[in-house]
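Technical note accompanying the year-one report. For the benefit of new consortium partners, we illustrate the data format agreed upon in the data management plan: each record pairs a sequence with a C-alpha cell string. No post-processing was applied to the example shown here.
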Amino acid sequence: MSDVVLFLFRFFLFAVVHSLLAIPSLKKRCAARNSHLRRFYRLYYNLISLVLFGWVMAAFRNSAVLYVVPGVWSLVLYFMQMVFLFILVACARQTGIAAFLGVSKKTPDSSTTLMLVTNGWYRVVRHPLYLFSLLFLLSNPVISTRWLALTLMSAVYFLIGALLEESRLLLEFGNEYRAYQRAVPFMIPRIFTR
C-alpha cells in the first residue's frame, strides 16, 4: 500500500471514529452506564482523537516537498499561522476552554441550560473553529504531499462536520439558531455588508 493511500485510509478511519464518538446519543449511553464517563467523556474523546491523529500523521513520514514559499514571505505565512492559532484559542475561550478540553469541574447534566454563542468571532461566521483551522492549514509555507493531503481531507471533514453541527444546533436551539443562520454566514465571512 502506498504512503498516500495509507495516509488517506488512516485519515478516513480517524474521521469515522472522531465523528461517531461525537454523536450525542452515544455520549448519553456511555454516561448512563458509567458516571465517571459522564464527567470525563470529552477528555477521553480528545485523548483518543489526539492518539488517532498522531497515528494518521505517522503514516506518511517521508512525503515529497511540493513547494516552499521563498524568503520573507514564509515568515509572513508563519506569522499568519500564529494569528490563526490565537483566534482559535479566542474561539475556544468563548465557548469555554475547560469544557472544550474536557477538564471542566462541572459535571454535565440534563438540567444545564446551554446558551448559543453569537458574539466575538461567532458574529463573523457560524463555524470559526473550522474556518480558522482550515486557514491555518492553508497558510503553511512548506507544502509537502502529506500536508496537501491533510489540508484537502480536513477541508472535506470540516465541511461535513459543520453541516452535522448545524442540524444538531437546530435541534438544540430551534428558532434562535434559525435567526442566527439568517444573520451570520456559514463559514465564509461577508466582506461587504449591505
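Partners are asked to follow this layout when depositing records. The chain has a mean pLDDT of 88.
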